Automatic annotation (TrEMBL):
Residues 41-60 bind DNA. The keyword Heme does not apply. Residues 19-78 form the HTH tetR-type domain. PANTHER family: HTH-TYPE TRANSCRIPTIONAL REGULATOR BETI (PTHR30055:SF234), HTH-TYPE TRANSCRIPTIONAL REGULATOR RUTR (PTHR30055). This is TetR/AcrR family transcriptional regulator. Signal peptide: none annotated. Pfam families: TetR_C_43, TetR_N. Keywords: DNA-binding, Transcription, Transcription regulation. One of its GO terms (molecular function) is DNA-binding transcription factor activity.
Length: 214
């Protein structure tokens, strides 16, 4: 699945080899941020991507620029997974399940430590990617609710918190040893989302805005 860049990030199309280098850098950065945490040296990222330091800095002048692009890339890929779920014409809850498992694969929560107090969380690129993915996830969930398959007292924030927490590896450890548990435990959570609800949840449905304000 290829990253769908936001309109705000559109620019004159670079050469094919330059595009490949940029994608390799983004992929390597995402992998190393997940594996080693926020302080992984940029030259190590360049080495894994198979490019020189000059190529990395030509594409991303500083760490914040690279982190921002990785976050946008992950959100774009998550949005594409949601679009695939919406394109399905069968069981709405099964489509929701497939989306949730695909979202967990993106490990977006492992990137949260990268967003430091000095990071521009309101950058236009991030806002555009965030608004797109949140609207698509809401649509996937609303369709399952309309089919009477998803309990009505949950929101987008509830789903994404669970997917994030269940798939978040402890940075700097043998995090991929726990991969075999992620989808098993996520499925247990998803089973609890099915309607009719078997219990009354405390509090109210969680939105993504609730998460940002917490």
């Amino acid at each position: 699945m290829r990253t769908a860049p936001s309109a705000r990030r559109a620019s004159p199309r670079p050469r094919a080899d330059a595009l490949r280098n940029r994608e390799r850098i983004i992929t390597a950065a995402r992998e190393m941020f997940v594996e080693h945490g926020p302080q992984v040296p940029l030259d190590e990222i360049a080495r894994r991507a198979g490019v020189g330091n000059a190529t990395l800095y030509r594409n991303f002048p500083d760490r914040d620029a690279l982190v921002r692009e990785v976050l946008c890339s992950v959100m774009d890929r998550t949005a594409e997974a949601a679009k695939c779920a919406l394109a399905e014409t069968g069981d709405a809850f099964a489509a929701l399940e497939r989306f949730a498992h695909a979202a967990a694969e993106e490990r977006i929560s492992a990137l949260c430590p990268m967003v430091s107090s000095t990071f521009d969380r309101n950058h236009p690129d991030l806002e555009a990617a965030r608004e797109r993915v949140e609207a698509l996830i809401a649509e996937v969930m609303d369709r399952a609710k309309a089919a009477g398959q998803l309990r009505t007292d949950v929101g987008v924030g509830d789903l994404m918190v669970a997917a994030a927490q269940l798939s978040r590896p402890p940075a700097g450890t043998a995090c991929f040893d726990a991969d075999r548990f992620v989808h098993r435990h996520l499925q247990l959570f998803l089973d609890g989302l099915r309607a009719p609800a078997r219990s009354v949840l405390p509090g109210t449905a969680v939105t993504m805005e609730d998460l940002r304000q917490s």
